[in-house]
UniProtKB/TrEMBL annotation:
Signal peptide: none annotated. The gene is sufC. Residues 6-249 form the ABC transporter domain. Belongs to the ABC transporter superfamily. Ycf16 family. It holds the Pfam family ABC_tran. This is Fe-S cluster assembly ATPase SufC. It comes from Nocardioides jiangsuensis. The keyword Protein transport does not apply. Keywords: ATP-binding, Nucleotide-binding. Coiled coil: none annotated. InterPro entries: AAA+_ATPase, ABC_transporter-like_ATP-bd, FeS-cluster_ATPase_SufC, P-loop_NTPase.
């Protein structure tokens, strides 16, 4: 089982002028095996939602709840969230100078499983995951994300997704900055993850392009810190044709 439930989530961020409310009551349920796309204009709070689920310290939950299979996610540390089965691929993956990809992956896997992976199978698994996203396996010896191209960073996120195999994956603009070949490779990685059948995916994106390769079950339009519209995959087609104007203007006049 893997059900992520977000209820009336309000989140503020600390700014130099004091706290500013970014999320203004988000309700979302991701059941086992479902892929949900969140689509919205820049600045609408999509990344804030992703960071809030992952437990980034900069974001303060002022009210609402997030549960995974009934367990209170907001009461968990960042590590506990990962061990519970939550994974976040960040929009802007951080560089970690001095830590190799190989060590980073092994440390993350060990933290999640509670024991170090068996060395022989692990090396095979890492190489296999890298090869499937067409990452040169020599990159395992390089520092995490340091000097990686945008596409290499996103492929590395997919390698993590495959190796860590969470229950619910939050993918924040995993498509941004990718050329068409990289977009297909990354999408195939997400689809392999989905093929397990019981995994949940929250796919955050500004553009409809990736939804041609990863078919969502539900689409949510995110505007000004809340969900303004919900529907099936056809909603993405409508957004592609009409853009976000209708929703942004509706919010402004309300
Ligand atoms: P999106 O991912 O939809 O583009 P974000 O969640 O990144 O939106 O940002 C939503 C709003 O919150 C923006 O106005 C942004 O400037 C503001 N914001 C997000 N994080 C911070 C922060 N750490 N400090 C100040 N403002 C922030
Ligand atoms: Mg509310
Ligand atoms: Mg964002």
């Amino acid at each position: 089982m893997a059900t992520l439930v977000i209820r009336d989530l309000h989140v503020s961020v600390d700014t130099e002028h004091g706290p500013k409310e970014i999320l203004k009551g988000v309700d979302l349920t991701i059941n086992e095996g479902e892929t949900h796309a969140i689509m919205g204009p820049n600045g609408s709070g999509k990344s804030t939602l992703a960071y809030s689920i992952a437990g980034h310290p900069k974001y303060t939950i002022t009210s609402g709840s997030v549960t995974l299979d009934g367990d209170d996610v907001l009461a968990m540390s960042v590590d506990e969230r990962a061990r519970a089965g939550l994974f976040l691929a960040m929009q802007y993956p951080v560089e970690v100078p001095g830590v190799s990809v190989a060590n980073f992956l092994r440390t993350a896997k060990t933290a999640i499983d509670g024991e170090a992976p068996k060395l022989r199978t692990w090396i095979k698994d890492v190489n296999g995951a890298m090869e499937r996203v067409k990452m040169d396996t020599t990159m395992a010896q390089r520092s995490v994300n340091e000097g990686f191209s945008g596409g290499e960073k996103k492929r590395h996120e997919i390698v993590q997704l495959e190796l860590l195999n969470p229950k619910v994956a939050v993918l924040d603009e995993t498509d941004s900055g990718l050329d068409i070949d990289a977009l297909k490779i990354v999408s195939e990685g997400v689809n392999r993850f989905r093929e397990q059948g019981d995994r949940g995916v929250l796919l955050i994106t500004h553009y409809t392009r990736i939804l041609r390769y990863i078919k969502p079950d539900f689409v949510h339009v995110f505007v000004d810190g809340r969900i303004a519209e919900e529907g099936g995959p056809e909603l993405a087609d409508q957004l592609e044709a009409e853009g976000y104007d209708k929703y942004v203007n509706a919010g402004a006049s309300a």
